[in-house]
Amino acid sequence: MPRTEAINLGFWLGFSLLVLAGCQEVVLNETPKNDLFGRLSGSPSGRASKVSPDARRGIDPDLQTPIREELPDGEIVLRSRTARDLMIHIQRALTDPERDLERELFTEQVLSDKTWQEYESRGLPPERAYEELLAKRDDVLLLFNRIGPLAENSPQVIMRSLGDNVIRLQVTGLAKEGLRWTFMDMILEGGNWRLRWFG
Question: What is the C-alpha separation between 92 and 97, in angstroms, rounded?
């Protein structure tokens, strides 16, 4: 190819990329058909919202809110908008040396109401759930390691609905070999994913 033609081709390719970069379309409040979370009631990905200046710039204001926040009065608020957020809270609860604080946060903001009620119905304090997971910490952390940092988007993980806003996040194929627990069930409560249990 002559040099002038190569220069012209390079110019037009570069110009085309600049034009494409400037033609971004922001779609608000659209839930893909395969978005399992978006089809559940109260799901963050399926809600309607007002168009804010941040949204017009393609920024989701909810994503700017930290998943763990200490309020001015010292209260700590945990948010779990995704399975990954929930996994981060559980992992911190099981590995942080400040066990008393993490036990309280786990029981109040990570454990689901449904599981809490099951413990109470058996005459057990809900804090017992934390102690049981702490005793099986290695199994939980190994499962999280196999799920990987992409959580629900990992190729070795499948998600399925169990009904009543409960989702099962399950490791499949070779990734599940040697695991005592191969899945985590979570339930949407009050706009946050909470731990149902492992199995």
Answer: 9
Residues 74, 155 contacting (CB under 8 angstroms):
no
Distance CA 199, CA 182 (A): 6
Tokens of residue 78, six digits: 């945990």
pLDDT digits (tens, 9 = 90+) for 8-47: 444 444 444 443 444 433 333 333 333 444 334 343 333 2
3-state secondary structure string, 87-148? HHHHHHHHHCCCHHHHHHHHHHHHECHHHHHHHHHCCCCCHHHHHHHHHCHHHHHHHHHHHC
Q: What would you measure as the largest C-alpha separation in the chain, in angstroms?
A: 84
Residue 145 CB contacts under 8 Å (≥ 6 apart), including other chains = none
Name the pTM for this structure.
0.69
Instruction: Identify the residue with better confidence: 60 or 47.
Output: 60
Q: Which residues pair with 21 in a beta bridge?
A: none
**CA–CA dist 126, 26 (Å, integer):** 44
| % residues pLDDT > 70 (the chain) | 68
